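Appendix B. Worked example

We walk through a single record from start to finish. Start with the input: the chain for Oligosaccharide repeat unit polymerase, Brevundimonas staleyi, length 523.
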Amino acid sequence: MTVFSKQQHDILSSSSRNKRLLLAFLATCAFVGFTIYCVTKNTESLATQISLVAVLVALISYGSVVLWLEASRGELFSPIALFSASVLAHFGVTGLLYPDPDVFVSRRNYDFLVPSIFYSFAFVFVYNIAGYAILQYKRHSRNGNELTAWGGRGVYIAIGILLLIGVSARFIIIDWNVYLQTSLATLEGARHIKFIGTVRQFELFPNYAAYIALIYAFSQFKQHNIKAYNFAMRVGIALVVFNLIYWLPTGKKFPIIATTILPIMILYLYQKRLPPLRLLVVAIVFVGALFPLTHAYRVSQAQAFSGRNVDDLGSTLAAVGEAMVSSSSSQEMGARNRTFGRLNQNEPVAGSIRIINDGEADLRWGVDYANVMTNMIPGFLWPDKPKVMYGNEFGHLTEMVQRTDPYTAISVTLIGESFLNFHIAGILVGGLLALIFCGIYILGRCGVCKETSTLLYVVATPTILYVGASFALYISSMIQTLVVVFLVAKCLEVRSSRRAAMMARSRGPAWANSAPSPGTGAA
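Next comes the structure step. The output line below is what the pipeline stores for this chain.
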């Protein structure tokens, strides 16, 4: 074995550090050069080129550093990492790949591209500052005999009930012919069928059943109960496959992505590691392919229902199939079939800034955030409840939707909505979002059962990731869902002392003396 002197060790360490610094410098230069190339290739004004390069480099560099720091801390799926990654993808990467004015529906919105990216940067910066402050909260764990964990029999009863309700809701969705993402039946049905929102929430229950099975499996693995782990894991995998089979024909990429990614997240939250590389590559390729494929599929849906309607799902799928065959080589589909183009949320934010600065719309002064309470009241209790969505009107104002189109809605986005309400002070809404999302993340530190706090965070994750959401609609839906999921999870909890006795009866008295107590760690 070679033994180095302290001086030699210092020289080697210094050399290794210099190599890393050199590689980082070269990567930075390459990134800046690529950014300059992308921007100058498509933009016109020199001032626009310089400012766009500056804000893109700042946003992408900042987001990348945050992700690297979170990953190095074993917090790759923290609310800070998830929200930063989402903003990075929706505003930074897409701004780099699509700086062309022709990508924008309205050239007037393109003139506000630089302010929109800068505002997004400031928004996520405030979110992260507030998030880091909230995550510093620590509370001493309760005594071991007061800890709780999920009990086995109750877990499978809950899974069965969720499946029964969820599958029934899915049959109703199919029967009403509002199964696909895009069709006249869906557009009109979603507006005129009573309780469609409630049924849509029930539609997700089989997904929650899968998460419960996987969380229970990993918790049993940590307690060395391999038999229970194997059975729960098989149930979880079967439910994930069942959900993918249901969601794939809809053309709704977000539920498909959630069904694919959230099991990986559950694995990471429990074991602080990602799945095997081969499985991870398959998942990434699958998610990446979803964007162009679902876009082509939805274009075919729109073409299939142009000027006509159908009454049942069979006729609907047949019409979509005909449209896909007849238009598979059309220039329109090829031009719009872009992987990253569907992620681009820069125009809604730019449009929000433009219509406020040009005086075409008045500030909403927090109406969208007060509407959370309005939207949480069930429709059967308030039949004439006012709508909280204004995506179609917003599309008309920002010139992203034709005035004659009464259906198409443009998502305002969480960031654009904050500007519509409070102008530049809207970046403080980032702190409010951090309080909500990070508060859910640290429930495990506040005495909530480990499995329950993990389930709540997993269920909330799609809302954290979807920056294209509207605050009132998505936050109110998230709160309603979390209340239901929390009540279900609480029914599964048993005290650790009682659980130890249950496990001792099932595995013998020798195990009872060495049974580990469930941990409390942060979600």
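Two observations about the output. The mean pLDDT is 75. The beta strands are 148-150, 493-495.
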